[in-house]
Amino acid sequence: MIEMKDVYKQYSNGVMAANGFNVSIKQGEFVYVVGPSGAGKSTFIKMMYREEKPTKGDIIVNGINLAKLKNGRVPYLRRNVGVVFQDFKLLPKMNVYENIAFALEVIEEHPKNIKKRVMEVLDLVGLKHKARMLPDELSGGEQQRVSIARSIVNTPKLVIADEPTGNLDPETSWDIMNIFEEISNRGTTVIMATHNREIVNTIKHRVIAIENGRIVRDEQRGDYGYES
Description:
Blueprint: E1 2-10, E2 16-25, E3 30-34, H1 41-46, E4 56-61, E5 64-65, H2 74-77, E6 81-84, H3 96-105, H4 111-124, H5 140-152, E7 158-162, H6 170-185, E8 189-193, H7 197-202, E9 206-211, E10 214-219
Helix pairs in contact: 3-4, 3-5, 4-5, 5-6
C-alpha cells in the first residue's frame, strides 16, 4: 500500500524533517507514528497524501509515485485517501449530513448513492440521529466522529489521522479509537500520528518512532516508548 524509498524533506528554513525514510506498509495494517514534538511525524504523514512533497526519494501510495505526481492529479489521489485532522476541519454552515455528502459530491457521485453511503457511515460512527445538526451544535467528540465519517465515506483504501484524539477527553478518545479499530477491521490501512501513550500501549499495533527526522524504531505490537 505504501512504500518510502530514501525519502528526504528539507524545508526552506533548513530544517531536515525527513532524513532518509525507508518504510513499507501493507494493505490493512494499522500503524501508530510516535515521537517528540517537531520530530517529523506530521511531515511523514503529510507526504503520504501529497500535502508535502519530498525533496528527494520516492513515495509510492497504492501504486502511484507521489514524488512524480503532477499537481493536477493530486485530487484524484485523495479520492482513495481519507484524512482526519485534530481540529476536525468541518464546514461550519453545513450540517452533519451535508459535510459528509460534500466529499462525494465533489467526485460527482450519483445522488442516490450519496444518501445511502452517508447514512451508512453515520450509523458506523453513531450519529444518524444528529444528521441535521450544525457542527457548532455538537461536542468535540461528535465533531471528530463526523470528520472520521467524512474521511471514509468514499471507501478509501487508506485513512491517515493526525492526532485525532489530541483535543478530546480520555473517555471520548477511547470511543474514537473504537471507530478506527472498526475501520481497520474492515481492511482499510490506518496510519495515526499520536502522542497518546495509553492508547498506543493498550491497543497494540505496529509502532514507527521518529526522532530528528529519522525513523529510530519500527516494531510490530510496539509500545509508545516516551514519557507523555
